[in-house]
């Protein structure tokens, strides 16, 4: 026992002799970093490093034939007489397929966010209504989809949108006398519609939770006062409810817009972005270029273009959202 | 243990509450009818309330119908297909568990040979365990069964790695982020939150590089490395979550322990961690789910014999010979345990989810 503590004491002395005082103080103050470091290191290895590596790949002409031999070369392009490694980017921004994908991605963001916010606020309004009985119970069960794994939800919905005559959606249409629709492989807008419906269903519980808590924060007196003044339902909705829930709903909309922009699973599982590559949302476009065409460099350029826009979402979130709140933990 | 007891108590409370709800509603209705008879309650108002409540119920039912439909389809086994009008939409006319039997397959504990060499004597003890057959699905007319057991085994392997490594990475980090001040603390927190709220798709954006790294290192088809990856990606969200939870534990407990002469390590181990049990349970579930439900990377990295459950589920929809009923049963066996855990843990999860800005 004493031999061990003696050894500890000796190494302690040696440490104090060898390391400068200021460094020792720094270590004493910041030694807790050591406990954060493993997590930070693991996260950086598997997330940040691949992102940086993606940047490198996007400058090369890496394909399955070259990258594994390490024989890839920079994809250069002549700009002002300089040979710069932006070949993939120049090629990409001249590719009509890129602009199809880019356009449909932003259209998807716009339509799906509109639907998600609309449906979320609608359900939240119903489930906080004065006359609705059992609303707490209904609120508890209506958010069940939040607990379902995305892969489950999306595979199930791809079955619902089956082009078969007795797929669920076609059966639903047939009750209105409408013929079977080839949802996923026929018309591009039918496929696009099916994406929107699924995305809406995936995200509405999140919107409901946020809107309900915002609605509950609206003082009842405000509504009563407006009623006394003779304001109708629409009038009260616009002048009392909307101003009160605007901020939280806007914040949720930013988050959910970022999620829509990065949507990959729905088009991948439904129909691989078809028909005719018309609905390839941008992440899927990059994925397919890399793993189905084996154009790793080109795919990396697409992915980084997407990352750039995700970065913009993050920036908006920091500026407009209330991200920083709670970081300090009061 | 007290955590389990408390969970059980809250579950019991919920169940009792739900079970007595009809009785309370009935009392309420009787009271209202009585009021109408005596003229205290306006029948028109009552009718409005009933109509609006029914409307709300209809909206909720429509939203949840797809889940219900999956249940119904699963109970119809081979009868439920997308190509014939045979399947029922509301009540299964001939409920059968055939589809679930197809998913689970034969349940049998095969015979193992256990050999133990006793040191220094040279004797071997060999035990042959008997094969135990619990369920033979061919008795019920199911011939070829699904790959569910194989995928389940793979998923459990990956999840075990994810949870072990993930907890080891997250808990110490969350503790010091909550209790100590050091350089770069705010930066780390800020980065973690930013990634959590927006960065879900970055994992796929970095996928090309990740794939090339995995191939170069020979890590494809390694379930261990996949588990490690899931653990690493789960770090930001769960560290943040646990840190938030630990912030809510009063510091005075620790101060008392320090006054009594406990070392910092002992304070963390014997004071903070026991108090943070609900938070620990929550992140355990989240870390587990991160790997359990991930599809894209598992689909890309693993060969068929290593596929996890989500990949197995995806493979089914491409196979047109699979009836919708069997697909539904497979999907339910995969997702339903998760939903149960989620529902039971909902209170803890919600108490842990008090993000800045999330509360509105």
UniProtKB/TrEMBL annotation, chain A:
<keyword id="KW-0812">Transmembrane</keyword>
<keyword id="KW-0813">Transport</keyword>
<keyword id="KW-0472">Membrane</keyword>
<dbReference type="GO" id="GO:0005886">
    <property type="term" value="C:plasma membrane"/>
</dbReference>
<protein>
    <submittedName>
        <fullName>Sugar ABC transporter permease</fullName>
    </submittedName>
</protein>
<dbReference type="InterPro" id="IPR000515">
    <property type="entry name" value="MetI-like"/>
</dbReference>
<dbReference type="Pfam" id="PF00528">
    <property type="entry name" value="BPD_transp_1"/>
</dbReference>
<feature type="transmembrane region" description="Helical">
    <location>
        <begin position="249"/>
        <end position="270"/>
    </location>
</feature>
<feature type="transmembrane region" description="Helical">
    <location>
        <begin position="200"/>
        <end position="218"/>
    </location>
</feature>
<feature type="transmembrane region" description="Helical">
    <location>
        <begin position="140"/>
        <end position="160"/>
    </location>
</feature>
<dbReference type="InterPro" id="IPR051393">
    <property type="entry name" value="ABC_transporter_permease"/>
</dbReference>
<keyword id="KW-1003">Cell membrane</keyword>
<feature type="transmembrane region" description="Helical">
    <location>
        <begin position="33"/>
        <end position="59"/>
    </location>
</feature>
<comment type="similarity">
    <text>Belongs to the binding-protein-dependent transport system permease family.</text>
</comment>
<keyword id="KW-1133">Transmembrane helix</keyword>
<dbReference type="GO" id="GO:0055085">
    <property type="term" value="P:transmembrane transport"/>
</dbReference>
<feature type="transmembrane region" description="Helical">
    <location>
        <begin position="104"/>
        <end position="128"/>
    </location>
</feature>
<feature type="domain" description="ABC transmembrane type-1">
    <location>
        <begin position="102"/>
        <end position="315"/>
    </location>
</feature>
<feature type="transmembrane region" description="Helical">
    <location>
        <begin position="296"/>
        <end position="316"/>
    </location>
</feature>
<dbReference type="InterPro" id="IPR035906">
    <property type="entry name" value="MetI-like_sf"/>
</dbReference>
From TrEMBL, chain B:
<feature type="domain" description="ABC transmembrane type-1">
    <location>
        <begin position="152"/>
        <end position="345"/>
    </location>
</feature>
<keyword id="KW-0472">Membrane</keyword>
<dbReference type="GO" id="GO:0055085">
    <property type="term" value="P:transmembrane transport"/>
</dbReference>
<feature type="transmembrane region" description="Helical">
    <location>
        <begin position="226"/>
        <end position="242"/>
    </location>
</feature>
<feature type="transmembrane region" description="Helical">
    <location>
        <begin position="50"/>
        <end position="75"/>
    </location>
</feature>
<feature type="transmembrane region" description="Helical">
    <location>
        <begin position="280"/>
        <end position="302"/>
    </location>
</feature>
<keyword id="KW-0813">Transport</keyword>
<keyword id="KW-1133">Transmembrane helix</keyword>
<dbReference type="InterPro" id="IPR000515">
    <property type="entry name" value="MetI-like"/>
</dbReference>
<feature type="transmembrane region" description="Helical">
    <location>
        <begin position="322"/>
        <end position="345"/>
    </location>
</feature>
<keyword id="KW-0762">Sugar transport</keyword>
<keyword id="KW-1003">Cell membrane</keyword>
<protein>
    <submittedName>
        <fullName>ABC transporter permease subunit</fullName>
    </submittedName>
</protein>
<keyword id="KW-0812">Transmembrane</keyword>
<dbReference type="GO" id="GO:0005886">
    <property type="term" value="C:plasma membrane"/>
</dbReference>
<feature type="transmembrane region" description="Helical">
    <location>
        <begin position="189"/>
        <end position="214"/>
    </location>
</feature>
<dbReference type="InterPro" id="IPR050901">
    <property type="entry name" value="BP-dep_ABC_trans_perm"/>
</dbReference>
<dbReference type="InterPro" id="IPR035906">
    <property type="entry name" value="MetI-like_sf"/>
</dbReference>
<dbReference type="Pfam" id="PF00528">
    <property type="entry name" value="BPD_transp_1"/>
</dbReference>
<comment type="similarity">
    <text>Belongs to the binding-protein-dependent transport system permease family. MalFG subfamily.</text>
</comment>
<feature type="transmembrane region" description="Helical">
    <location>
        <begin position="156"/>
        <end position="177"/>
    </location>
</feature>
